[in-house]
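Quick one, T. Sequence first:
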Amino acid sequence: MPRGDNFRQHSSVYAKLVANVVEDGACWLGTERERANYGYVRVSLRIGHRQAKLMAHILMHCIVELRKLGVHEPTNEELYLAYLEFRESGLEIDHECNQPACRFPGHLEPVTRRENELRKHERRAALPARENIEHDSALVEF
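Structure tokens:
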């Protein structure tokens, strides 16, 4: 797992997300057993008296966005609301590395469905994108 970045020191949900990863090049691949369609990793988040199964890469994106707004230790409820807000926005997360299980913040970009599909087809026609992406620690600094 990447060491030395200042991104990973705050959120307990973040700590849970990075505790279950293995490095594969520059990617942080989730190792959880529960997978949704196409290899995307789902994790449980306790909201009040219930558990919600959420996509790990979207949670990671929400944590990054909340930190940009100054919320460095979001509660589960704040994170869940940010997650719902993102889902309702109509955007999707494009994995620039082409790895659905990756949750490295620098590889995740919100885009429209159309843009996501175009990029996916472009990557399939070329070499796997994850071989071409270098780890840039500046992407995770705030």
